[in-house]
Design brief:
homotetramer; mainly alpha; elongated
Amino acid sequence: MSENYRDCVEACYICAAFCDNCAASCLEEEDIDMMRECIRLDMQCANLCRLTAQFIALGSDSVKELCKLCADICQKCGDECGKHEHDHCQECAKACHHCADACRKMAA
Amino acid sequence: MSENYRDCVEACYICAAFCDNCAASCLEEEDIDMMRECIRLDMQCANLCRLTAQFIALGSDSVKELCKLCADICQKCGDECGKHEHDHCQECAKACHHCADACRKMAA
Amino acid sequence: MSENYRDCVEACYICAAFCDNCAASCLEEEDIDMMRECIRLDMQCANLCRLTAQFIALGSDSVKELCKLCADICQKCGDECGKHEHDHCQECAKACHHCADACRKMAA
Amino acid sequence: MSENYRDCVEACYICAAFCDNCAASCLEEEDIDMMRECIRLDMQCANLCRLTAQFIALGSDSVKELCKLCADICQKCGDECGKHEHDHCQECAKACHHCADACRKMAA
């Protein structure tokens, strides 16, 4: 794999791990009523990131289209997480935005 | 879930099961040299179908884009499988083409 | 695939679809405070069911151990969902318990 | 997440990436006839590692059982990959054995 590819695989898996952790942590927050959209997007983002990393490592011909879609969801998830002050949300927002950048580079 | 949604989830999971079975069966064929592309696409198609079914059932806002991509890969995988006479390839081709149609309906 | 195998793959995917739908629906319920454990288990159950179905269709040597674990989580998830009156919870409980039975048969 | 948890999540995702890459590379080797078992185990190992990483990050109660199973498959996959001289097999063997160790620590 080229360096760009490796970076994106790594960014996707780090993002997935923070999204899973954020979803599970949101489910234990007192203010869960405000965390609905965050949990919803975390679930989607984590799973799409895992598939994107898999397709990159498999050398799929569909990597560009998939990375474009993954960038969109990472951006949305990062924007939502960024609205909340919990540490797990702020860390997750950072990982999502970094992954969105890495995916946009791959999609270009 | 609406009827269209249910049909597409079902088509995706049936397609995934036939692709997994086809990949594993191709790996045991004597003429494995000719089955490389079939195995490669089966692996991608099965995993993308599972994610697509998940996103539909989760009610994701990204369903249309994902179904468009899934339809493309199902079509390619079905076309490749259709070239081979093995029963598992022919059954898989049928499931892939059916899923491609269901995904195109969702993406429209 | 033998009939037992096919039945279990089907039960796993149906269970995954109901768990995804239940998780997304719980996230929109007014009484989300009571649905935390249901969402948490739905997420795990859906993803483990998908992997189990994949391993069965791939003909993995680890199918028995995986089905044993899948049966345990389906049972827990079905028991939790069964406590709630929402239609999506009741339907999900039924699918989980059916899948737990199918996985126990495979694990035996 | 504790340090043990983080280490295991990281080992699982690195293992998944090397297994995906190894499977795709094996499919392009001239001596594909000898790589059948390697491809078969790579596919299983990559997907189980991804699920295990997800369950750890979600804080699932089933982490120990899942890590035990993941360690078994990583060990098998690493042993098989280690038999082949291709760089992608040797790198993959190393990642699998490292992940097997990390999972055994979690399962203990």
